[in-house]
Write a structure and sequence with these properties.
Blueprint lengths: L5 E5 L4 H11 L4 E6 L12 H10 L3 E6 L5 H15 L4 E4 L14 H26 L6 E4 L9 H4 L2 H20 L5 E6 L7 H7 L11 H11 L9 E3 H7 L26 H6 L3 E3 L5 E3 L6 H12 L2 H7 L1 E8 L4 E7 L5 E4 L8 E6 H8 L5 H6 L4 E4 L1 H14 L4
Parallel strand pairs: 1-2, 1-4, 2-3, 4-5, 5-6, 6-7, 10-13
Antiparallel strand pairs: 8-9, 10-11, 11-12, 13-14
Helix pairs in contact: 1-2, 1-8, 3-4, 4-6, 8-9
């Protein structure tokens, strides 16, 4: 369906952008790889040239262009080169994005500038530069990788600058879809669950991939959108919802680890499982609802069990000291020392300076340590705040998985 179409994709040297490019390449599309990485990166895979080789091997034609979307002249030059090479532009995918999940006081000005420049300004300028050419296409599309705008304050309070920047991309969809209605389709696409990319590895650390889906799901959803008529415009699409409507039934094929619980992505209020677990009523023998008695101190009981489960193996493999600042019914400061001798856990500040300080409610702490609330989900939904060494925080999550059977 996309044979002979020219796609201009920002950030297409790896991850989601490259996956969308490869899907279109199988039809015989022309792909303009507009990305920064020309020389191999020390930690991130792929360059515009390795992506070009993969695209051509998949059946497409590739034009690698060095483009930092913060630089308007680089965008203009790449668009001109694309038109000279392929005769026009049919589709623009605004995929390039910058992320920093930090609070207002912790976000350096250069990080704020980066996110606003790449996510909002870069999307706006690339769209503006491509639009005169898109208007000449028979079935032109702009697709932004941005979320539906959810004004629940929880999505602002922990990473205000990032949220503003991603919603800026979404507002481009709102405005341009209406401005160019009948001429150019403008839509947004967002994943229901976390997607395994280099960025996710950086944010979540090793082991996070089991909670993610492959980039293929977004590539398939993008293909569905980009092959629709230009009258399909102004939509904020969730990948799984669209694919179900298209008749897809087996979503295990998209999972990195089929059967493993998946982590919801940002900006989607999808915490139903957790809500189910928060009920305090249970059915009695006759089916009547009865309130279960609350333990004297759930937090103290949890720390007693943690202390009993301590082992030199945990200390050797973790090498970290964790301090918990708890609020709510069981408010107070607690610690787990997995660095000193055989390890220890208890009330008050740790015997040595903590490597990681975690703040959350006492109720959520108990849920987290008994396997009813995943630490990653608690962090992403704002229930858990972490200061200090994130790598050690991830190590603690691994230890929790082993401890859950004992708690």
């Amino acid at each position: 369906k996309l044979a002979g179409c020219t796609l201009f994709i920002t950030g297409a040297s790896r991850g989601i952008g490259k996956a969308i490019a490869l899907k279109a390449a199988k039809d015989g599309a022309n792909i303009v790889i507009a990305a920064k990485t020309a020389e191999p990166h020390p930690t991130l895979p792929g360059t515009i040239y390795t992506a070009a080789a993969e695209i051509e091997a998949a059946g497409g034609k590739a034009l690698p262009c060095i483009v930092n979307v913060r630089e308007e002249q680089q965008i203009i030059k790449a668009v001109e080169k694309a038109v000279q090479t392929f005769g026009g532009i049919d589709i623009l995918v605004n995929n390039a994005s910058a992320i920093s999940l930090t609070g207002t006081l912790e976000t350096e000005t250069k990080k704020v500038n980066l996110m606003m420049d790449v996510n909002v300004r870069g999307t706006y300028l690339t769209s503006k530069t491509c639009l005169p050419h898109l208007r000449k296409s028979r079935n032109p599309h702009i697709l932004n990788l941005s979320p539906p705008m959810n004004l629940n304050p929880m999505w602002f309070k922990n990473h205000c600058a990032y949220t503003i920047s991603k919603y800026g991309m979404s507002m481009c969809v709102l405005g341009m879809a209406e401005e160019f209605r009948g001429e150019v389709a403008v839509n947004a696409l967002w994943p229901k669950t976390a997607i395994h990319t280099a960025a996710m590895d950086m944010l979540g650390g090793s082991g996070i991939e089991k909670q993610c889906r492959k980039t293929d799901i977004l590539a398939d959803a993008a293909y569905c959108i980009l092959t629709k008529p230009k009258s399909f415009t102004g939509n904020f699409i969730i990948d799984e919802v669209l694919l179900r409507e298209e008749g897809v039934k087996d979503f295990d094929v998209y999972a990195i680890a089929p059967g493993h619980p998946l982590m919801p992505d940002f900006f989607l209020d999808a915490l139903k499982e957790e809500k189910k677990l928060s009920g305090s009523q249970h059915e009695g023998p006759d089916g009547a609802k009865v309130n279960t008695a609350k333990p004297l101190s759930p937090v103290a009981e949890t720390f007693r069990l943690i202390q009993g489960a301590m082992s030199e193996e945990y200390v050797r493999t973790t090498q970290g000291v964790f301090q918990f600042e708890l609020s709510g019914d069981d408010a107070g400061t607690w610690y787990i020392d997995l660095k000193t001798k055989g390890g220890s856990a208890g009330f008050g500040k740790p015997p040595v300076t903590a490597d990681v300080v975690m703040s959350m409610s006492s109720a959520d702490f108990v849920k987290m340590f008994t396997g009813k609330l995943k630490p990653t989900l608690a962090f992403m939904s704002g229930k858990l705040k972490i200061k200090g060494n994130m790598t050690l925080a991830i190590k603690l999550e691994k230890m929790l998985t082993q401890l859950n059977s004992k708690l």
